[in-house]
UniProtKB/TrEMBL annotation:
InterPro entries: Anti-LPS_factor/Scygonadin (IPR024509), Anti-LPS_factor/Scygonadin_sf (IPR038539). It comes from Penaeus vannamei. Residues 1-20 form the signal peptide. Gene3D superfamilies: 3.30.160.320. This is Anti-lipopolysaccharide factor 2. Keywords: Antibiotic, Antimicrobial, Signal.
Length: 127
C-alpha cells in the first residue's frame, strides 16, 4: 500500500475521533476526501487550486486552532472554523466552504456529487 494512502486513512480515522458536529452528508464526504490532502497545504477541489491555512491560538492555557479554506477561483468565499482539535478544525472549514459555495449558487450540489464520485472512482483504481 502506498504511503500516501496510509496517511490519508490515518488522517480520516483521526478526524472521525475529533469530529463533534454533524452537517449535511455531501459536504461531510467532500470535506473528508479533501482532508486526506490537507497536510500538503494545497488541495484541488473541482479542478481548482485551494489552500488550507491553520493558525494556533492560546486562550486560558489551551491551544485552539483556527483554520481557513480558500480557493483561487472563488475568492469571495472563505471557509472558517475554530476548535481545539486540529483535524476537526480543518474538516469543518472545508465543510463551511462547500456549504457557502452551494448556498451562493457558485457550484451546484449535483456537480459536487459528480466530482466526489469521480474522486472515489479514481481513488479506488489507485489502491
Amino acid at each position: 500500500m502506498r504511503p500516501s494512502v496510509m496517511i490519508t486513512l490515518l488522517v480520516l480515522v483521526l478526524a472521525a475521533q475529533c469530529n463533534a458536529k454533524k452537517k449535511g452528508k455531501l459536504t461531510k464526504e467532500v470535506a473528508r476526501h479533501l482532508l486526506g490532502h490537507w497536510m500538503n497545504k494545497s488541495v484541488t477541489f473541482m479542478g481548482h487550486s485551494c489552500k488550507i491555512e491553520v493558525e494556533h491560538r492560546f486562550s486560558h492555557w489551551t491551544v485552539y486552532h483556527q483554520c481557513t479554506f480558500t480557493c483561487d477561483h472563488w475568492p469571495n468565499i472563505t471557509g472558517k472554523a475554530s476548535s481545539r482539535c486540529k483535524l476537526a478544525t480543518a474538516e469543518e472549514s472545508m465543510r463551511d466552504f462547500v456549504d457557502k459555495a452551494i448556498n451562493s449558487n457558485l457550484i451546484r450540489r449535483i456537480d459536487v456529487e459528480r466530482w466526489l464520485e469521480e474522486q472515489r472512482n479514481g481513488s479506488a483504481t489507485l489502491t
